Amino acid sequence: DLIVHVRDVTHPETVLQKATVLSVLKNLNLPSHLLDSVVEVHNKVDLIERYKPTEENALAVSALHGHGLEELKQEIEKKILTATGKKILTVTVNLEGPQLSWLYKEATVQEVEVMPEDGTARVKVIIGSSAFGRYKNLFPN
Q1: What strand order describes the sheet that includes 108-115?
Q2: 17 neighbors 23 (Cβ within 8 angstroms)
Q3: What distance, in Å, lies between the first and last C-alpha atoms of the chain?
Q4: 59 burial class (0-12, 13-18, 19+ CB within 10 angstroms)?
């Protein structure tokens, strides 16, 4: 669904390495949308003072220090959701009904926050459009 290209920007041949990787990817006859959505990651930016990517849409990270990793995670999540046609939603379910079980079977449950005072839970899920449509039909409330 997604290609993440991580480069060591401190390497003296980093530009040549990028060209080589892109050439190999193109020779694999991958779908154009996959090649067009590559996430470019510049790693080891902690070793270059005041590093700023010169390439549009490149993400600067330091895996060693954790710099930029949250932005990278968000970018990957956004592109994966777009590529797969899924979305992240939070729904409130009645714990006495079958909704939670259905969500575990038909979606990816990320978090469940139980509200014991009213017998409900807030459930954060990754779900496709068609599955969400079925959910709304089965559980209109």
Answers
A1: 86-94, 120-128, 108-115
A2: no
A3: 33
A4: buried
Degrees, nearest 5: CA angle 129-83-21: 170
Spell out the CATH class of 85-138: alpha beta
Q: CATH 3.30.1370: which residues of the chain?
A: 85-138
In order along its 141 residues, the chain shows pLDDT tens digits of: 899 999 999 999 999 999 999 999 999 999 998 998 899 999 999 999 999 998 888 999 999 999 999 999 999 999 999 888 999 999 999 999 999 999 999 999 999 999 999 999 999 999 999 999 999 999 997
